[in-house]
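Our consortium's second objective concerns turning raw sequence data into structural hypotheses that experimental partners can test. To show how far this objective has progressed, the report includes one record in full. It was chosen at random from the queue rather than selected for favorable results. The single chain below, 328 residues long, was entered without modification.
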Amino acid sequence: MPERWKIGNDGKSLSDIYGSRLVKSSISNRFPLVIEPMLSRLVGPRIASATCEFLVFGIKQAAACVFAGSFLFLLAVSSHISIPGLARYDFLFLGAIAIQIVLVAVRLENWREVAVLSLFHLIGVGLELFKTSPSIRSWSYPEPAFFHLKTVPLYSGFMYASVASYIMQSWRLMQLKITEFPPFYLAVGLCAAIYANFFTDHYIVDLRWPLAACVLLFFRRTQVHFIVTDKVRRMPAALSFLLIGFFIWVAENIATYFGAWQYPHQKRQWAIVGPTKISSWMLLVIISFIIVAALKEIFPKQQEVFSADDEAVAATAVETETEDTALA
């Protein structure tokens, strides 16, 4: 196989990486095999294939949200659960720990990943301590808590960790591979600058838009390669950051509706969180992504650039290998 098809510094091609793994997902195999033939008779094979792939994509994304979804459910029911001597925020904190233990017990996450989530928990709590301090008050937690650090209930760190959890679950379920990732020093420097801006924007000019421009510049060639059913798909990394940021903003509105925290404009009654927050969440997603990327060790020293023709040939090789496996 031509050397230029190889990605990273491990000497593996896309077909090497993906081909032997395509048959391992029960969702990828069983769901389309059952549904697609029936849909084909109704709407034709192309639409049926695209529909099945879209549905499987939704199922896998829902599975990747196992921690975040469980936490949102816990948040929704917590206002209807009263345990004497246990504050609601403490119930959420203990519940989040229980969810994490279950995920490790059923091997959806391992202890190395838990360590990364703990790091992101600490990063989130550090940001919370500043943003909720009496001199800043960007938002507040209106209910009492025993497990708290100054103005921050400790359960809040799990909301940040859930973002990293989603990325790690997606990485596994969608068999993600990254090409043309920026050099380590640029990625880490951008990560540090984004985090610092969450603090400095209260004292100097907000640099979120220049930082967003740097994201577009540094990640302009970065592609996220993933598998839904049996084909290697790709998406610009910057677009994935924006999409994840949007859905976190949706989740934020749900969370504030259930009283997870409170912005100043929500003190009298709940009101939607403005869409300008999407940019903040997008930048926060990048921090999560870089941390998870470090865990997955995808900071190569050198990466070869894919041409459009090479990717088409690589995808064809994957499909051919899949068909051979099926015939076998």
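The partners drew two points from this record. Confidence is low (pLDDT under 50) at residues 1-25, 300-314, 320-328. The CA atoms of residues 28 and 229 lie 5 Å apart. Both points have been shared with the crystallography group to help prioritize constructs.
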